[in-house]
Amino acid sequence: MEVGREMTSTEPRAVSVYTALARINRMLRNGAGPGALTLGATSALWVLVNGSPMRLSELAARENVSAPTMSRLVAALERDGMVERTADPLDGRARLIAPTPAAVELIRGATSRRAQLMEAALNRLAPEDRAAAERSIELLAEVLAEQVCASGDPPL
Fold first, then answer.
1. N or C: which end of the chain has fewer CB atoms below 10 A?
2. Alpha-carbon distance 131 to 137, whole Å?
3. How does the average pLDDT of the chain come out, rounded?
4. In this predicted model, what pLDDT tens digit does every residue of 94-111 receive, in sequence order?
5. Which of 56, 28, 53 is nearest to 42 (CA)?
């Protein structure tokens, strides 16, 4: 909800939350500047940093996208020096994807411009509001991920 804008009684709360998340996404994207990683690339790197190495198909499943979509994303990350592919020791025909040290630093070190913008915004909140915002967003992301995975809908 925009600052100073009252929610109408006919506007569902979910629409208001969705709109707020879309605005956050847009502001982070615009504030990151040219050449910044997309949110999809950042999310895939986060998965790899916290659970690598893995096959492309596993990464696509975890991110709930199609294999061709993930293939394009990984190719771009590889070109940018963020991931590397190695032979799978269990199956030499398969390739594993792992983050490079630069990717680990980007994700764990919160050196991305988007992470810095988010940190600055969170720092402006009172400690109890910050804790509530962090927990609420994490919980919502977990529940949505479970819901989407359980729905059986094909990935994007």
1. C
2. 10
3. 84
4. 899 999 998 998 887 766
5. 28
Residue 52's nearest CA partner among 13, 83, 73, 79 is 83
25 and 42, same domain (yes or no): no
Placement of tokens 């009252």 in the chain:
6
Q: Which of 68, 44, 41 is nearest to 54 (CA)?
A: 44
Which pair of tokens denotes residue 40? 């999809």
In which domain, by residue range, is 24 found? 10-36+112-150
Same domain for 45 and 104 = yes
The total of structural domains in the chain comes to: 2
* Higher per-residue pLDDT: 12 or 82: 82
Helix (H) or strand (E) holding 35: none
